[in-house]
Structure formats: structure tokens, C-alpha cells
Amino acid sequence: MELREIELRNKPEQMLKASPKGTVPVLQLGNSEVLDESLDIMLWALQQNDPGQWLATGMQDARELIEWNDGKFKYDLDHYKYADRYPEYPADYYRQQGELFLAELEARLNQNAFLCGNQFALADAAILPFIRQYAAVDPAWFAQAPYPKLQQWLDDFLVSKLFASVMTKHQSWRPGNPQILFPESGC
Ligand SMILES: N[C@@H](CCC(=O)N[C@@H](CS)C(=O)NCC(=O)O)C(=O)O
What we know:
The protein contains eight helices and four strands. With 187 residues, the protein is mainly α. It has a domain at 59-164: Glutathione S-transferase Yfyf (Class Pi), Chain A, domain 2, CATH 1.20.1050.10. The strands form two sheets. A two-stranded antiparallel sheet has the order 1-4. It has a two-stranded antiparallel ribbon with strand order 2-3. Strand 2 and strand 3 (34-35) form a beta hairpin. Helix 3 packs antiparallel against helix 4 and helix 3 runs parallel beside helix 5 (122-137). The longest helix has 23 residues, at 59-81. It binds glutathione (GSH). Glutathione (GSH) is lined by residues 8, 22-24, 37-38.
């Protein structure tokens, strides 16, 4: 696989040609098929190789939870993050709207170690980045909020090797730059 890190402020025309909607991530397959929704890319990758069995259990439940995350919760999160752009309500209001999802996740984590069962799986990977963003808007508020299981689930992820491995910084791609290929040599 060739990785092309891009700058959102300076999207390469090759990217826009492959996916005119201009969002990341974009996966271009060898047969020229293009996937430009992160969930589709996750599902495609896991169909190739799923060493942690992320697709093994509760897929319908996982899909419904991810749909809630990507729809209503993402909407509330964006309003909470950028509350100054949405002055109809104060930031607390948008934060409270998001808490409906947080309460659902907390209830699930009271039943099981992870969102859809007792092992880390697709729903955890798909939803964690958004809870990280939500927590980062006001870390002091999040730290004292009544979601102990959710806080622990997020903290465990933030110190994991998996998180460190996906947060590696790469140089931006330009036509002609050396390619970043995976698996990297030596792996
Ligand atoms: N539903 C899309 C959302 C992708 C998305 O909005 N990505 C943001 C970055 S996290 C982006 O590319 N925004 C375009 C921009 O900032 O120009 C997905 O999951 O792939």
C-alpha cells in the first residue's frame, strides 16, 4: 500500500480527481475503484485481514451505533466544538445534546468491556476518535463528568500501541516525493 499524506488546505489534484468530494480518507484500489468513506475503508481493510476479529460479533448492533455516532452525535459534536459559529444556543446546550450518546456508551461499558461485547472491535475503533474530540473540547469538564467507564475506555485507547501506531506523522505527499509504502521495510 502506498500512503499519501495530504494537507487539507492544499489538496492535490490527484486526490480530487479520485474523489471530488475532497474529504479524507480516500482509498484507491488497484482496479481504480475508490472508497471515500472511512467506514467503507475500515470494512474493506478488515475483509482483507482481521487479526483482532473486529468483524466477528454484533455487526448489526455495531452498524447502528456507528450510524448514531456519524449522524446525530457528530452533528452535536461539531456544534459543541464550534459553538461560537452557532450562537442560537450556548456551548453547554450542544454538550448536553452529545451527552445522550455518551450515556448510551457508558451503559454499554457497564455491561461489557467494549461497546459491542467483550473484545475491542469495529464500533470501538470507529467511535473512539469522536469521543476523543468531544473530551478535548473541555477536558476539565469531561474528567469530572459522570462517565467513569467511558473515561477509562478512552484513556486505555490513548495509551495503547494501536493509537500510537496510527498517529505517526508523515511528510505531505507531492508528486515525485519518495513514496511511503506499507508494510514498511523491516516490518
Ligand atoms: N463521512 C466522512 C467524513 C470525512 C471528513 O469529513 N473528513 C474531514 C477530515 S476529518 C475532511 O476531510 N474535511 C475536508 C476539509 O477539511 O477540507 C468519512 O468518514 O470519511
